[in-house]
Design goal:
Elements: H1 4-18, E1 22-28, H2 41-45, E2 50-56, E3 59-64, E4 68-73, E5 79-86, E6 89-90, E7 109-117, E8 120-127, E9 134-139, H3 163-170, H4 177-181, H5 192-201, H6 222-240, E10 282-287, E11 290-295
Antiparallel strand pairs: 1-7, 2-3, 3-4, 4-9, 5-6, 5-8, 7-8, 10-11
Length: 300
């Protein structure tokens, strides 16, 4: 699944084309993706102006002028592309430099937004070969009640994520630090890759109990203060680099970010640890069914 930086990359790529545009027509190539499309989806949004594009955790939020929000998830293979409209359809031969091939097969173009923005007409096309993505329609003032959002923790990029907050959630926990950080009720949208990277930067073992980073009085230890900063840093670096760009992810302009080439520990099993002077080797263990990469020599 795309992680938070990938989704933020998509949001930033779509915003110039979609924000302020009106939806002239919505084409649905099938009745469903992972879930059925909302009833009367096209009728409810056609003619509406897109006010803004937002993000909550790993979900895109397409906010419309009438108080409705399209909640979109990319699933495993979903991607958007922006194409000029030619004779009412997108130009599938639009140029783009691709590091990994993506689908342009029309049978996988399941959703097409035909947009007017000033004098320009463009198509924003959602392509999803595996059809694990979805789109729901939610009233904006009820977004907090949307099942996927109801119990989400704060964003790793927001001011609400602090060492004091994490101390309050970690206190007394014997659960391993890695799996605790992956709990979306604690931090929203923080995924496996970036947890591994943040723990490596903070020199903390993914196996240690989360509660060991909290004092007896419930205050964050210096290691937890540092971990909070490293979480912010690794997410900021990944967003700046355009996301980690795993196999099925691609930016909306057809280019890919290259943060995956900067992974210090994720998917680096058997490689020398990059911590200066460490001398250790990256190991792989499985925690709760997920691969964890870390250096036992410097992550304590």
């Amino acid at each position: 699944m795309p992680e938070l930086p990938e989704v933020e990359t998509v949001r930033r790529g779509l915003a110039p084309a979609m924000e302020g545009a009106s939806i002239r027509r919505l084409h649905l190539g099938r009745p469903d993706l992972r879930f059925p499309f909302p009833e009367d989806f096209a009728a409810l949004i056609e003619g509406k102006t897109i006010v803004s594009l937002g993000r909550r955790a790993k979900y895109l939020l397409i906010e419309l002028e009438d108080g409705l929000t399209i909640v979109a998830h990319l699933g495993m293979s979903g991607s958007f592309r922006i194409e000029p409209e030619v004779d009412g359809v997108g130009d599938r031969d639009a140029p783009g430099a691709f590091h990994y091939a993506r689908s342009k097969d029309g049978k996988h173009d399941h959703v097409v937004f035909h947009l007017n923005k000033g004098e320009e007409r463009v198509c924003v096309i959602y392509n999803d070969p595996r059809r694990f993505g979805f789109m729901h329609l939610v009233e904006r003032n009820k977004l907090d009640l949307y099942p996927a959002f109801a119990e989400l923790g704060p964003e790793p990029t927001g001011n609400a994520l602090s060492a004091d907050y994490l101390a309050s959630r970690f206190e007394g926990k014997s659960q391993p630090l890695k799996s605790t950080l992956l709990d979306q009720k604690i931090i929203a949208g923080l995924g496996n890759i970036y947890v591994c990277e943040a723990l490596w930067r903070a020199h903390l073992s993914p196996l240690r109990a989360a509660g060991t980073l909290v004092t007896k009085t419930g205050k964050p230890k210096p290691q937890l203060i540092d971990l909070t900063e490293k979480i912010r840093d690794v997410i900021a670096d990944a967003i700046a680099a355009g996301g980690s760009s795993l196999r099925d992810h691609i930016q909306t302009d057809g280019t890919l970010g290259y943060f995956q080439h900067s992974f210090s520990v994720y998917d680096q099993e058997g490689q020398p640890c990059r911590t200066p002077g460490c001398g250790g080797t990256v190991e792989r263990v499985v925690q709760a069914g997920r691969s964890t990469f870390y250096c036992a020599a410097c992550q304590k």
